[in-house]
TrEMBL record:
Pfam families named among the record's database cross-references: Bac_export_2
Membrane topology (UniProt): Multi-pass membrane protein
Keyword hit for Transmembrane helix: yes
A GO CC term attached to the entry: plasma membrane
Record-given protein name: Flagellar biosynthetic protein FlhB
Transmembrane segments: 51-75, 95-124, 163-181, 201-224
Length: 372
């Protein structure tokens, strides 16, 4: 028993240490704006192909439905024309006429559809990712030829998710197709008793109804996929704490260096301010916490604040003023008001003109007595 206790004792007495450094490399930070901008330049953006496909199909079938009478009439008229001229000799002129007629027919029937699809595809992509033109995504990358990397992409977590999404999409669309067709398949054999225009019109109505129902399902799936793609892109772009720090150093500079620069700038500003104290006409004090140096000469709109400080800085201003024989006047309310309402280099605020004028008049009287 003692042997077991002696073996167990080191593990009991050893304190449990939770090392946070183990998680230092985890990507827990939201991507910065620079990270997102760089990813956008590379084409790494959250967009859903299902959403683009859905709206392209929607505009395509909508244009076909609107132009159905025109499309049917144009094709029927041209077919009638071709079959009515079959007895003509086969020569260059007749072949060229048929070819030009086919081009005109395609322009009348297909061009509006293609134009609408192109504009809708552009609009939905701009909606998803904005105007983003780059060629990096289609550039040649040698690592894409590596079969090991290829197998890694095929059997990756993302590929598995896409497979599940595709199977789910096929199942949902298949269900709606089955639910729609089961009510119309039995009626289709009756179309053989109709003439061609009526049967085509009936079939067109069924096809358009089925297409718009399926497109509505695809739009819903596309919206869900768009939200997922945005979320997945954010997850892929997440950064570690060290990456955030490194980016801040690159964009804004090392915080320690910036701190030293600011400290040096404060020291230089303080030195310039102290050099102006001997030129002041009066120092207004609290008397211990605040000190404000005022200067006024003929032609100025209002007295100028050439220096101000609190506590140790105020003491330094008063010491320099004494050495330079600049008058020091104690006025607690005025000192506090001047310190709070204006910065070095500003003129005295208008609401303090009267109080400052009284102080300056007192200083000028003292100077005149000394001269006398």
């Amino acid at each position: 028993m003692e042997i077991l206790q002696s073996l167990y004792r080191p593990y009991v007495s050893r304190p449990f240490a939770f090392d946070l450094q183990l998680f230092a490399g985890d990507k827990t930070e939201e991507p910065t704006s620079k990270k997102r901008a760089d990813a956008k330049k590379k084409g790494q953006v959250g967009r859903s192909t299902e959403l683009s496909t859905a709206f392209v199909l929607l505009i395509g079938f909508f244009i076909i439905k609107v132009m159905w009478a025109h499309i049917y009439g144009s094709i029927a008229a041209y077919t009638t024309y071709v079959f009515s001229h079959l007895n003509q000799p086969v020569d260059t002129e007749n072949i060229l006429r048929i070819f030009i007629g086919i081009i005109e027919l395609l322009a009348q029937t297909s061009l509006p559809i293609m134009l609408g699809i192109m504009l809708m595809g552009l609009a939905i992509n701009v909606f998803q990712v904005g105007l983003n033109f780059n060629t990096e995504a289609i550039g040649f990358k040698p690592d894409k030829l590596n079969p090991i990397n290829g197998f890694g992409r095929i059997f990756s977590k993302r590929s598995l998710v896409e497979l599940v999404k595709s199977l789910f999409k096929i199942a949902i669309i298949g269900f709606f197709l089955y639910d729609f067709l089961k009510d119309h398949l039995m009626a289709m054999p009756q179309f053989i008793y109709f003439d061609l225009p009526n049967s085509l019109a009936q079939i067109a109505d069924i096809v358009f109804s089925m297409a718009f129902e399926v497109i509505a399902v695809i739009i819903v799936l596309g919206i869900l996929d768009y939200g997922y793609q945005k979320w997945q892109t954010t997850q892929d772009l997440k950064m570690t704490k060290q990456e955030v720090k490194d980016e801040m150093k690159q964009t804004e500079g090392d915080p320690q260096i910036k701190g030293k620069i600011k400290q040096k700038q404060r020291q230089m500003a303080m030195s310039r301010m102290m050099q102006e104290v001997p030129k002041a006409d009066v120092i207004v004090t609290n008397p211990t916490h605040f000190a404000v140096a005022l200067q006024y000469s003929k032609g100025m709109v209002a007295p100028l604040i050439v220096a101000k400080g609190q506590d140790l800085v105020a003491k330094r201003i008063k010491d320099i003023a004494r050495d330079a024989r600049v008058p020091i006047v104690e006025n607690r309310p005025l000192a506090r008001a001047l310190y709070a309402s204006a910065e070095v280099g500003d003129t005295v605020p208008a609401e303090l003109y009267q109080a400052v004028a009284e102080v300056l008049a007192y200083v000028y009287r003292l100077k005149n007595r000394r001269r006398a």
